[in-house]
Write a structure and sequence with these properties.
By secondary structure, this protein is an alpha/beta fold. It is 33% helix and 18% strand. It has one domain: TIM Barrel, CATH 3.20.20.70. It contains 8 helices and 8 strands, in the order βαβαβαβαββαβαβαα. Bound molecules: D-xylitol-5-phosphate (DX5) and zinc ion.
Length: 229
């Protein structure tokens, strides 16, 4: 059942890379709705993170929803591997190749939910032909590759445009990059319902101080709910 309630999806790119199982359990215990897994290939983005074996190792620790963000190109050859690794949502970048329609068909064919992601330089209109193939539109509010970057405010207007294009289709709007208690409000007001946060969730906490993760998640959620009015 589709619901547009506020979801906070901490990105484990900001977690302790020597302790993913414990970190995933900690953020979920502390209120995370989804777990956002940033896959990077050192080609589409200038950073390198998790292959399918790593995502498979994360899977048993995820009790909520594993949201896999593929910042890779080409993406089609790897869709089945990330689906088999246990992703619940597979999000591909519209910029990753010439055939986003076919890519999204391939993701849906695995039985997983399909997301499409737009970099800050990509217009909202670019998704007009694929809206009936996606479960989520991910509006990037940083240029992908790293955590801890500065929020790009043009994402707010883009969310508003995407929201208008979606109409009453059951499609989530996720925002990713520089999301924190200060930036989340305008994004909610513009129509977004799912918020990735790496540094704003993990900063100041650890698996030994997980309550800080809870405080950080609550701060973002409270600011989001306040904007809902
Ligand atoms: C950036 C990733 C984001 C990033 C978010 O390429 O897609 O998910 O980890 O990190 P923060 O919230 O610190 O900007
Ligand atoms: Zn991401």
């Amino acid at each position: 059942m589709f619901d547009r309630s506020i979801k906070i999806a901490p990105s484990i790119l900001s977690a302790d890379f020597a302790n993913f199982g414990a970190e995933i359990r900690a953020i979920e215990d502390q209120g995370a709705d989804w777990v956002h897994v940033d896959v990077m290939d050192g080609h589409f983005v200038p950073n390198l993170t998790f292959g399918p074996p790593a995502v498979k190792a994360f899977r048993p620790h995820v009790k909520t929803f594993m949201d896999v963000h593929l910042m890779i190109a080409p993406v089609d050859p790897y869709i089945d591997a990330y689906a088999e690794a246990g992703a619940d949502m597979i999000t591909a970048h519209i910029e990753a190749g010439p055939h986003i329609h076919r890519t999204l068909q391939a993701i849906k064919a695995t039985g997983k939910m399909a997301g499409v992601s737009l970099n800050p330089g990509t217009p909202a209109e670019s998704i007009s032909e694929i809206l009936d193939l996606v479960d989520m539109v991910l509006v990037m509010s940083v240029n992908p590759g790293f955590g801890g970057q500065k929020f790009i405010p043009t994402a707010i207007e883009k969310v508003r445009m995407v929201r208008e294009m979606i109409g009453d289709r059951p499609i989530h709007i996720q925002v990713d990059g520089g999301v924190d208690p200060q930036t989340v409000g305008p994004l909610v007001a513009a129509g977004a319902d799912c918020f990735v946060a790496g540094s704003a969730v993990f900063r100041g906490g650890s698996v030994d101080k997980p309550e800080v993760y809870g405080e950080n998640i609550r701060a973002i959620r409270d600011a989001a709910n306040k904007a809902l009015g």
